[in-house]
Design goal:
18 strands; 331 residues; 9-stranded antiparallel beta sheet; 24% helix
Length: 331
């Protein structure tokens, strides 16, 4: 997210197994060469997340648009139905100039880029949630996929942390396949630690969905402690995207409470065309997240609210991987 993104949960970066943000040493560069990771895939993470870097640096604050209701954003080949209350942040001249210079240096650039804020999130030094969308040509999409596949690489992780302006990125999940309204893609989750002095805990989802003419890369970032305010709304946006440029249908999200796993909640996107549920991620439950699950002999009670999602009782198929800030505090 951004430097000193929001108030700390007491997490300590030294306790995390992350990749610190510093220039890779020669031995790390040697590991990159031996792993077969191309220079282009590393370079992509330094440059293609430039919209996100510019926004988080505060360049876009005075360009923030008003709230858009029942609108559709359109890229070159993709469209997305905006859930009510989302704010679209347009690019500014400084970003456009930097993109032109990067393109002249041969650095891959997206076909279209969007930065969006869910309802209640504001672009500032304390941005609690955002969604970044990049539409990529086939060649750039291959570089992006290589980067996603190799997030554990010190060079790729360092570039990603730099582009997101965080101290470190760590705790990468395995690649998972998702089938949504816009098609079938691949996703990974990871955690991040914000810059001092707050060291905020951040959970992120990155996914890439290939299409017939272009691919769409989406990154969702949310303060872990505040996921119940924003995460389901961001997943509504993802579920309401079409990669073929057609008219997308708005998607809905359901939060599943499992009596066997009262310490987590699973978020499923409901495909508006098929009505099938796709498990996307599981997130921690507890008082610190404003969501608690209580059970008795006859029923399951969910206390708290999850913005943008209905709540149902069912079985989980995904385990929560997010680092729990309250456990970091206890160390």
């Amino acid at each position: 997210m951004t430097r000193s993104t929001i108030r700390t949960f007491g997490s300590r970066p030294e306790a995390c197994s992350g990749t610190s943000v510093r220039k890779p040493c020669r031995c790390a560069q040697g590991r990159k060469a031996r792993s077969g990771i191309s220079h282009g895939s590393v370079q992509y993470f330094f440059s293609a997340n430039f919209l996100l870097r510019a926004a988080l640096s505060g360049w876009l604050l005075r360009y923030t648009s008003g709230t858009l209701n029942k609108e559709v954003i359109r890229g070159v080949n993709f469209t997305a139905a905006l859930p009510p209350g989302f704010v679209v942040v347009p690019p500014n001249p400084m970003m456009q100039y930097s993109a032109m210079m990067a393109r002249m240096r041969g650095i891959p650039q997206p076909l279209s880029m969007f930065l969006l804020l869910p309802p209640g999130s504001q672009l500032s030094q304390f941005t609690p949630a955002l969604v970044a969308i990049e539409e990529l040509d086939p060649g750039t999409a291959q570089l992006a996929m290589m980067g996603i596949q190799n997030l554990e690489s010190p060079d790729v992780a360092w570039g990603l942390a730099q582009s997101l302006q965080v101290q470190s990125v760590f705790n990468f999940t395995a690649m998972r396949q998702l089938t949504l309204q816009m098609g079938t893609g691949w996703c990974r989750e990871f955690d991040a630690v914000g810059m001092p002095p707050f060291h905020v805990a951040i959970h992120a989802l990155v996914m890439l969905v290939p299409g017939p003419q272009s691919s769409v890369k989406v990154m969702v970032m949310v303060h872990t402690q505040r996921w119940s305010e924003f995460l389901a709304l961001c997943l509504q946006l993802i579920g309401g995207m079409s990669i073929t440029g057609g008219n997308p249908q708005p998607a809905s999200v359901v939060a599943i409470a499992d009596p066997r796993h009262p310490d987590q909640v699973q978020l499923n996107i409901i495909n508006p065309r098929t009505e099938q549920q796709m498990p996307v991620m599981s997130v921690p439950a507890g008082a610190i997240y404003n969501v608690t699950i209580h059970m008795d002999d006859h029923s399951v009670h969910v206390n708290g609210s999850i913005q943008g999602a209905g709540i149902a009782v069912g079985e989980h198929s995904l385990a929560s991987t997010a680092v729990r800030p309250e456990k970091e505090t206890d160390r």
